[in-house]
Amino acid sequence: MSDPAYQPNETSATIYTEETWFQGALVMCVAYGSMATLSVQCFFMLTRGLSRSTLKKDLPLLVFVVLIFMLCTIFVGTAMQFTQQAYVDQRNFPGGPAAYERNQYCLSIDLVANITLVMSCLLADMLLLWRCTVVYRGSAVPRWLSITLASLVWLGEPIFGLLFISQIRDILHHQSVNFTLVFWCYSLALNVFATLLIITRPLVYHYRRAKLLGTHHGVRYTCIVAMIVESELLYTVFLTLFIIPFVQNHPLSNVFLQGLIPVQAISALMIIYRVADGQGWTKDTYAQITTGTQYTSETNNISTIQANPSAAHTQQETKVSPSGIAIHQEVYVHMGRGLSSTDGV
């Protein structure tokens, strides 16, 4: 327990606000550490398999990883410098560190942080909309139409980003509209919209394929982890946790504000990692699943065993159900894998 005798001569509300700013800086640093680790992993995964045949596909992703890492690093560095000024260098500012954080946002150091914030957000949302066009490739929606719609939706964000920066620089200081809230709400709406689109497509595919081949087909694209990664759901939830208290002018929003950019970078890099690892939805996924490539592969395995019995051996298994019915099962063992078929009941 801290000694009350050494507490600052401030109100409890002011102290709580200062605590939320400081806790937000800690959340930002933790998120940055995760982002930096993921950036290194993505970089080496992309460069390890880089060749002339994959250059066109992997080079844009590699550039994205480098840019998002640089922008996030600049943002965290400038944000931590601003926090140092508030809590150490300018600790005697009237109203304390919380008032400094709230009123000195027009300083150059904070302006750099906000510019990199907007640029990083634009890049991450561009990646998310690109994933939408990839997921819906091969659908009834023409490719040119999906790309056009995604571009039009994305173009609204840099406009609100410029208005947000202009308001910080006092160019639009007397405007009644809070463009900080507008910018983040637009980003949230974009992410929610993209999340619904990205999640819907694999679920519809999985439902249709399950009716034909069983529920185990296509699970890699419809599991909870896959859908969370592909849709940047982590960032959407984190942004919602910021906007709700921000709208209510509650200091709790400070805990999430500084961590928004590293968390969004993590969400974007998780998509890159999944694509680089060959687990993401690609432009060829829909063609493969609709032509039954996976099912054909499994059928070919059985045909190979039947055509080459010397490469396999069988085992007879008999199971008795609780009702007393005997079930005879023949198991084919081939190359370390087992395939079974029921002979009779």
What structural keywords apply?
single chain; 345 residues; mainly alpha; Rhopdopsin 7-helix transmembrane proteins; 2 domains; three-stranded antiparallel beta sheet; 13 helices; 69% helix; disordered C terminus
**The level-1 CATH class of the largest domain:** Mainly Alpha
Q: What value does the average pLDDT take? A: 77
Q: Structural class of the helix and strand makeup?
A: mainly alpha
Which radius of gyration do the C-alpha atoms yield? 27 Å
Strand content: 5-15%
Strand order of the largest sheet: 1-2-3
Count of separate structural domains: 2
Q: What do we call the CATH topology of the largest domain?
A: Rhopdopsin 7-helix transmembrane proteins
Figure out the total of helices: 13
The CATH architecture classification of the largest domain is: Up-down Bundle
The assembly state of the depicted protein chains is: single chain
Secondary-structure element series? HHHHHHHHHHHHHEEE
Shape label: elongated
Helix fraction by DSSP (H/I, runs of at least 4): 55-70%
Keywords: Membrane, Transmembrane, Transmembrane helix
General description of the model:
The chain contains 13 helices and three strands, in the order αααααααααααααβββ. The protein is mainly alpha-helical and 345 residues long. The protein folds into two domains: 9-294, Rhopdopsin 7-helix transmembrane proteins (Up-down Bundle), CATH 1.20.1070; 308-344, no CATH class. The protein has a three-stranded antiparallel β-sheet, with no helix packed on it. Helix 1 (12-48) runs parallel beside helix 11 (260-276), helix 2 (55-89) crosses helix 3 (96-103) and helix 4 packs antiparallel against helix 5. It is elongated, with a radius of gyration of 27 Å. Mean pLDDT is 77; it is low at 293-307 and 309-345. The chain crosses the membrane at residues 20-47, 59-82, 111-132, 144-165, 177-200, 221-244, 256-276. Keywords: Membrane, Transmembrane, Transmembrane helix.
